[in-house]
Amino acid sequence: MPLRKLAHLTLLALGLLTALAVFFVAQLRFNYNFNDFYPAGDPDLDYYMAYSGRFGNDNDYVLLGLEAPAGQTVFEPRFLTKVDSLTQFIQSRRHVTQVSSPTTATNPVVEGLGVFNVPYLHPQEPQRRAQDSALVYRTPGLVGNLISRDARAVTILFQTSPNLSKPPGDSLLTAVRTELQRQGIPETQYHLAGKMVAQSVFVDRLQVELMVFMSLSVVLVTGLLWLTFRTWWGVVLPLVVVLGSILWGLGVMSAFGVSIDLMTALLPVMLFVVGMSDTIHIITRYVTELGYGASKKDSLLIALKESGFGSGLSALTTSIGFFTLMTSTIRPIYNFGLFTGIAVLLTFALSFTLLPAMLVLLRKPQLRVPRETGHSWDGVLGRMFRTVLARRHWVVAISALVLGLSVASASRIRINSALLDDLSKNDPVKLDFAFFERQFAGVRPFELDLKPGPGRTIYDLQVLRQTEQVEEYLQKTYGLNFVASPVTIIKSVRKALNGGLLEEYRLPDSEAELARLTRKVKLFRKKPEFRALALPDGSEGRLTGRMPDVGSIRADQLNADLRRFLRTSVDSTVLQTRLTGSANLIDKNNENLTLNMITGMSIDIVMVTLIVLLLFRSVRMTLVVLIPNLVPILIVAGVMGAAGVSMKVSTSIIFTIAFGIAVDDTIHFISKLKLVLLQEPSLFKAVRKTYLMAGKAVIVTSLILVGGFSTLIFSSFDGTFYVGLLIGLTLLFGVVAELTLLPILILWFYRHKPKEIRQPVPLLEA
User: Fold this and answer.
1) Would residue 211 count as lying in a domain?
2) Is residue 24 a contact partner of residue 249, using CB atoms and an 8 Å limit?
């Protein structure tokens, strides 16, 4: 079949597949679900899901903080009237299941057969302000929870429907903000926090940042391609191939029902810069052969033949680098690794179908720099090659010194994460969350499952006393600023039966008194604040609380101390406890991060080792290839340690991805070397020729990769910022190692035995 006809058929088939991809991409949606970051398959996740089915999720709430006007306290009648109006407005909203507010907080009093709820605050009776404020500051659970310690702010906490999705969640938040504006409350005087708030902001920013990153990448790559090839087709064809592969990759992701989240949002940018490698190697080789005077057809066949082997291997190693992320128990990382790996293979397929088809249909290009005048790249690379070998001892010595310092610095890296660690410290959302940490109980939820011993109920006096002991530890030692449990119910009932007097807010002294109290529990069970603290039959209870987001390192220490306390101080025949909750699950990710990263890197290294062994049948050559690619990884680990960058969910992917991408150029280099050695008996001359042939493509692809990843530093998400910065640095150090260490190591360690000439080959030739 004639080449042109084959090219037309290829373009037609690819066009139909691209149209199908566009259909699926049109259905793609942005989403950020906090729950997706729980460790999938973990027994603690299954336990929490069953627990939340009985008691409700611990993070389906929104905190609305309101600051009193300057010079006033929260007890001013006009301010409390606004708080009450907002409370009633929120209560009337759809998807709001419960509201806790200072103006709805009541002191229950049992008289006869009924319960009378006496409000703590009376905004319509200014003369009671001093009395009200005194009572509030003496009542447990109000100050630091609904009213700040300095009486300058209040919180309205409203529970929402379980796992509320973005559209209704955004609608609810918009309604609240509109009502705040209508009441004349400026943005500087209110603060919003909670899972729903973070999810809403994250999704909106993902949409904007994806467009920004893609635009910056297109501009940057277009400029670099123009500087490299100086022809319109040298710019357009690679862009068409890579944009096509992005469409295909997103189409596959959409077909499997996966949304764009904080991790998969990186796929288009990642693919855009990574996917350029194959097209640049093909076009560079194609232009080189044209420069040597070969025909268009021969040049294309040589380019495909020589680039195909190396590109196939590099696509394999890069995709494996992404596929190894599937070892993660975190669903967004798993999806990112799976679909980016698939997209890399699709890019390879397009590079060797779409690109050749377009080159066949284009006229033979007129090269701007004829071969007779010489190529400046050859001169630059030749001088670089001579300089590197002349100063090889310095290169190795400096590399060893930098490597030693990096390893020492890398030992300072710590695994630490917080609930909002993807936001920078000055981000408005994070500042709002910090407001609740500073003025109130905090935003980090705490959950402890309580199960009475055999033959007991959660209202057994011994069970209650053990629970109270745990509460005291959590408040005094662990750091909970707010706590509620079945003990809260019994104490509240006792207080209510004794006229609402605060001194009666304690556990009963005898079983007889407890029996009288438990008969009255049903009067309180329907109260929102007590409803989710114990099951109706008393077979299980819940201890819940809030605290500042102390970070996973500190949380792990606190949890270890808590478990030790529970083992030694709580009688398991009376009360059995189990730590659970969303924060506990997020902390558990840290236990898997290091293991996942080591597993991913190990798989990468094993695959590269196997590829090199198959190519060269040489263990020495395996070390030659691995060293220049592991050195940049260790240097960047040193940079992380020196800069105090913690290992967390978003940064744990850096090393695996960087190694998978960085090894690409090495694979291209050694695959070309393998081909050159078939015609060139001298190892030195073969390495030099390969250096000149592959050097340009290595430099150009590395510049595109570094530039492409550097666009991510403009992200408002810290995780994305560090992915861009650190992978960019890895690839920058990688190209330096590629052009300096690699040729030295090949000449020092590789024992090449030419088929025709068996005499020893000098290490260096002038």
Assistant:
1) no
2) no
Q: Are residues 568 and 588 in the same domain?
A: no
Could you tell me if residue 301 is inside a domain?
A: yes
- At 427 the three-state DSSP class reads coil
CB of 538 closer than 8 Å to CB of 458: yes
Torsion of CA 563, 566, 568, 573, to 10 degrees: -130
Q: Is the dihedral of CA 309, 315, 321, 326 positive or negative?
A: negative
**Contact of 723 with 266, CB cutoff 8 Å:** yes
Q: What is the mean pLDDT of residues 499-513?
A: 88
Interatomic CA distance for residues 177 and 193, integer angstroms? 13
Q: Which of 367, 395, 428 is the last residue of a domain?
A: 367
Span 567-591, pLDDT tens digits: 999 999 999 999 999 888 888 776 6
CB 146 within 8 A of CB 155: yes
| DSSP 8-class letter at 711 | G
Q: Residue 308 and residue 671: Cα distance in Å, rounded? A: 10
pLDDT attached to residue 371: 44
Containing structural domain, residue 309:
1-30+231-367
Question: What is the token pair recorded at 57?
Answer: 């999720």
User: Is residue 759 pLDDT above 60, yes or no?
Assistant: no
- Provide the β-strand partners of residue 118: 107
Q: Does some domain include residue 509?
A: yes
Q: In whole angstroms, what is the distance from residue 108 CA to residue 145 CA?
A: 18
3-class SS of residue 364 = coil
Phi, psi torsion values for 717, nearest 5 degrees: -95, 125
Report the 10 Å Cβ neighbour count for 7. 20
CA distance 257 to 621: 43
Backbone angles phi, psi at 58, to 5 degrees: -90, 0
Same domain, 170 and 113: yes
Looking at the structure, tell me whether residues 610 and 724 fall in a common domain: yes
For the chain, what is the domain count? Answer: 4
Q: Do 240 and 357 fall within a single domain?
A: yes
Answer yes or no: do 161 and 90 share one domain: yes
Distances (CA, A) of 294 to 211, 372, 680, 745: 42, 14, 21, 34
Going from the C-alpha of 67 to that of each of 135, 138, 158, 434, 439, the distances in angstroms are: 21, 22, 17, 14, 10
- The percentage of residues in the chain with a pLDDT greater than 90, rounded to a whole number, is 24
Contact assessment for residue 660 and residue 629, using Cβ atoms and an 8 Å cutoff: no
- Cβ pair 713, 724 in contact under 8 A: yes
What integer best gives the mean pLDDT of the chain? 84
Q: Which residues are paired to 423 by β-bridges?
A: 717
**Which stretches within 446-581 are classed as H helix?**
461-473, 486-497, 511-518, 528-531, 552-569
Number of residues that make up the chain: 766
- Closest by alpha carbon to 217, among 698, 703, 719? 703
> What DSSP string runs through 607-672?
HHHHHHHHHH--HHHHHHHHHHHHHHHHHHHHHHHHHTPPB-TTTTTHHHHHHHHHHHHHHHHHHH
Do 606 and 725 fall within a single domain? Answer: yes
Render the burial of 352-379: b for 16+ CB within 10 Å, e for the rest. bbbbbbbbbeeeebeeeeeeeeebebee
Predicted local distance difference test score (pLDDT) of residue 338: 93
Residues 490 and 562 in one domain: yes
Relative to beta strand 96-100, strand 61-67 is: unpaired
Q: What is the mean pLDDT of residues 216-231?
A: 82
Q: Which two tokens mark 665?
A: 């150029």
Give dist(CA 263, CA 654) in Å, integer: 12
Domain membership flag for residue 628: yes
Tens digit of pLDDT for each residue in 703-719?
888 888 888 888 888 77
Q: What is the CATH number of the domain that holds 615?
A: 1.20.1640.10
Residues 119 and 138 in one domain: yes
Nearest to 247 by CA among 426, 490, 18, 517: 18
**First vs last C-alpha separation in the chain:** 50
Of 580, 597, 623, the residue at which a domain comes to its end is 580
